[in-house]
## 1
Amino acid sequence: MNKALTALGLAGASAVAIAAATPALAATVPSDPPAGSKTLQTKTLAGNTNYARYSVKSMTAKQVIAYYQQALRADGFRTVNEGGGGSGWSDGWGGGGGGLTAMHNGVYFSVNAGGDSKPTFFEVCYGPNSQVVDNCQNQSQTQSQSQGS
């Protein structure tokens, strides 16, 4: 089983189906989220783009971004956008934090993190379409708005 699919909380038949449909894509993304992370949501979006939202109590948003930056570089990705700041959403899904977007061989990867490590929330998105990956943060905003923020 590909660690990237496990990292997105996908197992069994779902992971096998995605791996079969997108073997090159699944083989190029960083593997596991930081230790102690809890999977909150996983979703497959348009164009074989994968989205996952996590929380972790042992890391700040800056540490989450640094973790992925190191993993992406090790996997040959090039950073195309990086930044920080902001206050996030009022319902606890955000907080001050940062983001990182990288690419490698036609695969786009984005991670956004926010919060204060009590917990820190972060979302990971990767796929072959840069526009879909860039708009992945709308998944959590839509989700949190539907929860009655």
## 2
Amino acid sequence: MRDLYEAIEQLSVLLSLRIQNTVRKRGWAGQPKTSRFEVRSPEDRAYYPTQVTISMSLGHVVSFTPAEQPCEDGQSWHIKIQRSDGVMRRSFSDGIYVRKVENGYQLFVRNEVLGEAQFKAMFDDLSSGGLSGHSMTIGKAFKSRFGSIPAEVYEILCAAQHLEQLEQMHEAVLTEVTQLDVETALGKLSKWTPDQA
């Protein structure tokens, strides 16, 4: 277990360096802010994972926050990725995990090692705009009823283009009983076309 505590400390620093390098390469004005916090191993040894926050050009803040303890499996450690505006996209919705590989530990996104392509896609999504107009109103209604918007729902709202489709989606968010009912209705409405009017 000690190896995992060392891994979260080292790999969260490595992640912060990758983030700083990405921000520099993209020419963003603000520098990422890092902070460390203490976690204690079962042997009562202190380790210091690194948290990173980035102020984005569109006004929202992105944070990479390691959990305060390993995952329940005892073999991995979760790093939560969150935008302050509540936007959730598939590329970062599951966060990052520190997991054991053959010769040590590595950063993972879902079940893949965090490679350059995934890292670039993640930053493209983290820096892009959120919902606007009617889609934003629907998103706010969803959030007020059920909490954060799942990545799948967010993608459906972003893709909706027709006014009547958006009206029906808004109605579904306001009238369906459960979150599952709303998500099912939105899934059906995502396939809506103007000839169905």
## 3
Amino acid sequence: MYEPNYNQSSSGSPIQSGVSPFKPEYDEYISENPGRGSLKIQISAAFEAFPVAGVEVDVAVYSDGVRYSLYHDVTDSSGIVDNMILPAKSKDLMLAPERSDADEAHYLISLYHPDFQTVLDKRITVYDRIETILPVTLTPIAKQRSEGM
């Protein structure tokens, strides 16, 4: 059975990792989302020309108005966080003609690196038996020039 990663950031980033753990709510969330999908996040700068290592990535879900963190990780030298297995609606439910957007498993992605603008709660959908790849291009923060330059 899948167990979430509850590691929390200690770097002082502005990302609020959310409440963890949420055992009773998580058990209910798992029963509502019996499928499994994977998520890969690719972080880059300069129109995807340069991967960005060391970006804090937080994957969360809202349940009953509370934000819960499922993953908190850091990108590798290729700017990637990979192999995040997340609950998803079953494939059969997703293929049903009467389904709605509310039937999908939505997650919120937040990204932090001290040299780039923070991305907060970017929404993404994960589907059963599908690898979702989220490419994100970060915007650099303008640095103050020192006197005499």
## 4
Amino acid sequence: MDLNRFVSNVTRWKIALAVVGALAWWLAAGKLHAMAFCAGALASAASFWFLSHMVRAVGSEKVSPAKSIGGALRLAIIGYLLFVTIENYRLPQPALVTGLLVAIAAISIEVIRQHFYA
């Protein structure tokens, strides 16, 4: 399995799931819930981006200290940003948590798709 193709397919799934999820939350509960879902999906996408870059760095022979520190601190950075977002904007937690699951769902869909069609 080619890593670059896998990551690009997961990115497409994340975009599709984010659009569908935001629309569903908007129709079900309103604009604030849709915004909370988008904030969670954005944090999920950022975490996946940091993780994919860390995996690519481990695969190469030389890993820079900046990438190592950035990869190690990714959860702390994303957690802090989510905390600030929740505290300042009082976003609904169910929609936010659902958005955080977008990357996991996209990875799962792509793994299942590749299992059957690869």
